[in-house]
Structure of 2-C-methyl-D-erythritol 2,4-cyclodiphosphate synthase:
Amino acid sequence: MQFRVGHGYDVHKWGSDKPLVLGGVTIPSERGLLAHSDGDVVLHAITDAVLGAVALGDIGRHFPDTDERFANADSMLLLKHAVELAAKEGYRVGNADITIVAQSPKMAPYIEPMQVSIASGLGTASKAVNVKATTTEKLGFVGREEGLACHCVILMQAVQ
Ligand SMILES: [Zn+2]
């Protein structure tokens, strides 16, 4: 197969005093996300998309949250590991499109730094990475500010 597509989706609950890290970028916030790892919901969705594209399961299979080695793990290392696994299967990243679903904080100032950071994790150019953010018009768990979600779609290309 020359191209393979992957999808990733992740949710974390607000309610910790950890720093808010999204796409590998620390964002000023009065609250953080509950997680065994650093809670980077964006990198988790992307990692799942990479693993999904090459049919290697999901992030929980490779980095179980019951494993103490991954306590407060830097999610960028998990993403890079998934990209290495995909490379062993003969695929590299084509492009990625990411949607953060959050009622707050305002993401606009951090979109570009996130694209640069994610591109470095994926081993691709930042123009191959698109990050956008949306609210849910105050509807649902995101709108009630109970948590934050992220979707990612990724295209992987066979290395020639
Ligand atoms: Zn997660």
